[in-house]
Design brief:
This protein is of the alpha+beta class and 275 residues long. The protein has one domain. The protein contains four helices and 15 strands. The strands form four sheets. It has a five-stranded mixed sheet with strand order 7-6-8-14-13, with helices on one face. The termini are far apart.
């Protein structure tokens, strides 16, 4: 991996191997390679999760070339408009915060509870990262439509420390796995005007926080009430597939995305949400 470090600038880069033991053997469950790519001050999370190490380096370098290409093609944002437009990588972060994290709670219908005024042209699913994936309770993962159901202890979404010998030590945390969007009458073309570097959601305040960049490499911190998101539409663009690390309750989890380019219409001008 030394050539990757020499060729590209990362704020951090890590390799993670997940090793599983049973009564008869030890085997590799998956491998993750990723981190924060720094593009002249513009930071973008990028990573790849595979079941084995075959072509890991090659696939990761190809993913880097995709995110660099998408970053170059981002246009200048107009803060007096009310539309944010994101490439596939940024769309993954957006869906992760809004649909993924909200679905990890006890709310069964996040659309009516948090996003009653929002128009959409897709269904969003949380699915296993790979076939026959099991969570830390040994439950085989299911495909969950996040607009209709929340993630739970029975859907294959419990990931944390599991001590089968001493159940008092167990801490089960419900986490998303891989988010995909299935378009319904998608937009032909969405040209991105902003890049999301990081995000956060406050469930109690019904607020999403985004650190966004434009092509001029200047960043803005956005605080957007969920009820002021009027629409989220996805395009026909072929989505990028990538992974990154999300930390919640001191537990780091690899999360993956496959979301097309996205257009977000806000109630007010973008300028109104800058903090």
């Amino acid at each position: 991996m030394s050539d990757i470090i020499a060729q590209y600038q990362f704020s951090w880069l890590e390799v993670t191997l997940s090793i599983v033991k049973n009564k008869t053997k030890t085997f590799l469950q998956h491998v993750y390679l990723g981190g924060i790519l720094n593009l002249s001050g513009l930071e973008r999370p990028v990573g790849i999760k595979q079941k084995n190490i075959t072509n890991l380096r090659r696939n990761f370098i190809h993913l880097i070339s995709e995110i660099m290409s998408d970053s170059i093609n981002t246009t200048l944002i107009d803060l007096n408009k009310n539309h944010l437009k994101f490439d596939s990588f940024s769309s993954g972060i957006l869906f992760h915060e809004i649909f993924g994290h909200l679905s990890e709670g006890d709310i069964k219908n996040i659309k009516s509870s948090f996003l009653p005024n929002m128009e959409i042209n897709f269904n969003v699913f949380d699915i296993p990262t790979y076939p026959n994936e099991e969570d830390d309770l040994g439950i085989k993962g299911k495909n969950i439509n996040l607009l209709q159901n929340n993630l739970s202890y029975t859907t294959g979404n419990v990931f944390a420390y599991i001590d089968k010998e001493n159940t008092k030590n167990n801490i089960g945390i419900i986490r998303q796995r891989k988010l995909i969007a299935i378009p319904i009458n998608p937009i032909d073309l969405i040209t991105p005007n902003a890049i999301i570097s990081s995000g956060k959601i406050n469930v109690k305040k019904h607020m999403v926080y985004l650190k966004a960049y434009s092509c001029d490499r200047k960043y803005i911190n956005l605080e957007i009430p969920l009820r002021e998101i009027k629409e989220i539409f996805v395009s026909k663009d072929i989505p990028r597939s990538y992974s990154t690390i999300c930390k919640k309750a001191s537990y780091s989890k690899i999360v993956s995305f496959k979301i097309p380019n996205t257009s977000v219409k806000l109630k007010k001008k973008i300028q109104s949400y800058i903090k």
